[in-house]
Amino acid sequence: MRPKKRTAIAARVGIGLLAALIGGCTGALTKLGTNIAAEKGYISEEQKDAIVHTEEAFRKSFEELSEQEEYYIGRAVAATILSRYDVYENEELTRYVNRVGRAVSLASTRPEIYNGYHFLLLDTGEVNAFAAPGGFIFITRGMLELTPDEESLAAVLAHEVGHIAGRHGLAAIKKSRPIEAFAILGKEAGSAWNRKDLVKLTEHFDGAVGDVVRALIEKGYSRSQEEEADNSAVRFAAGIGYRADGLTEFLVKMDGAPGSSGSGPGMLKTHPSARDRIRSVEETVKNLMSEGTDPAARNRRFAKETAAS
Amino acid sequence: MKWNRRIVLIAATLIAFAAAAFAATQLTVQVSSTRIRKDGVFWAPSVAKVGAGERLTELSRKGDWIEVRTSAGERGWIHSTAVTTKKVTLGTGSSSASSGVSADEVSLAGKGFTEDVEKEYRKENADLDFDAVDRMSGMIVSDDELIAFLKEGKLAEWGGKGR
């Protein structure tokens, strides 16, 4: 190799490394490599664009939806739930449930979420609770009536926070949807909305919302996701000072409730049996029992707050 | 010294300078609004309010909490789930947005599933109750309310267990 050519290559390597460092991301390296390949004539300009866009699109899966995008999916899922159930209008009780829910969310693995956690009571005797992505948590009047104390209520709400912290709702979105949606995004990034693409993106949004609603209301989460949420519930509740056996206490009560065989609507249909759930958290409860503080003041508070409901 | 060796040496020096300049990790707030606090607990007094897209400089870490400095020079602690190391491109139409933007940047841009998409979705789903969702979103537990609740219930550091 001639000295001039070696100098040119050394300069390119140096400048390339510097550009990659300043770019500070693998995307820059991909682009750099792709640009050099195009420059050398190994690939066409068209192929270069396709590589960059494909790489961007395929790094976009549901796991990479931004906090804001998760929030907007959650809003649509929440609106769907609220079109199927009436709100239980009891401001004081709703505020109390929000305080308990906020407290356990602080000890969760995801205490900060785009627009915070919000809790609402649904006016039905059905024993159920839903966690929509983005922090929207619903608990039915029937479910609340089954909770014997604040420890159990905290655990039930922490279970729902656990689904959100684990992004279980988003995992229900068919993997092809965000990739297709973000392929549009990759192509159009930086330019003003194109009407045709907005319509297309909204179709994908509609599909994603449908996937989450089906998982939440009809199919339920997988057994492993439920076990994860149950174990998270015990940890989150104990983490802020509730007794670790609040969930077990609730599940024992649910096991004795009518329709506990699993043939009824709601949670009893979409969740593993109460006995299986108790078994799955046994070890976690045992390990965290010493974390709980004296529940006397909370028991009095729960009795007062739920007296009029 | 031969030219090619000199060039590599110069490039290495430049890299060292650039590395030093970029050593302070830059973080971006990824939640709509949150507080920077005096200490690494949610019930510590607020030092500053920050919003989505704001850039912060990381100073140190302790567990899940990060000590940061705002662009205005305020210093305090923020929970790690409120920030991202991803770069941010501002919303649609911003001059900083360009067609060469990376996927990491795009994920926080004003594109994707956003308010524009919700507006379009609502046109097709007029029966859905978004007003109730807005009312639900408005239910916020303030810091004072939270602290009073934790204290009354003997939770967190008020539980008498050295929390």
Features:
heterodimer; A: 309 residues; mainly alpha; 2 domains; three-stranded mixed beta sheet; 66% helix; 5% strand; B: 163 residues; alpha+beta; SH3 type barrels; five-stranded antiparallel beta sheet; two-stranded antiparallel sheet; 31% helix
Task: Please outline the helices and strands.
The complex is a heterodimer of chains A (309) and B (163).
Chain A lengths: L2 H21 L2 H14 L5 H14 L8 H18 L6 H16 L11 E5 L6 E4 L3 E5 H6 L3 H16 L2 H4 L4 H13 L6 H25 L3 H18 L5 H10 L11 H4 L3 H15 L7 H11 L3
Parallel strand pairs in A: 1-3
Antiparallel strand pairs in A: 2-3
Chain B lengths: L2 H19 L4 E4 L3 E5 L8 E6 L3 E8 L2 E6 L4 E5 L3 E2 L18 H4 L8 H10 L5 H8 L5 H10 L11
Antiparallel strand pairs in B: 1-4, 1-7, 2-3, 4-5, 5-6
Can you walk through the features of this model?
The complex is a heterodimer of chains A (309) and B (163). Chain A is mostly helical. Chain A has 15 helices and 3 strands. Chain A has helices at residues 3-23, 26-39, 45-58, 67-84, 91-106, 141-146, 150-165, 168-171, 176-188, 195-219, 223-240, 246-255, 267-270, 274-288, 296-306, and strands at residues 118-122, 129-132, 136-140. The longest helix of chain A has 25 residues, at 195-219. Chain A starts with a helix and ends with a helix. Chain B has a domain at 24-85: SH3 type barrels (Roll), CATH 2.30.30. The N and C termini of chain B lie far apart (64 Å). The interface between A and B is large, with 87 and 75 residues.
Task: Summarize this structure briefly.
With 309 residues, chain A is mainly alpha-helical. Chain A is built from 15 helices and three strands.
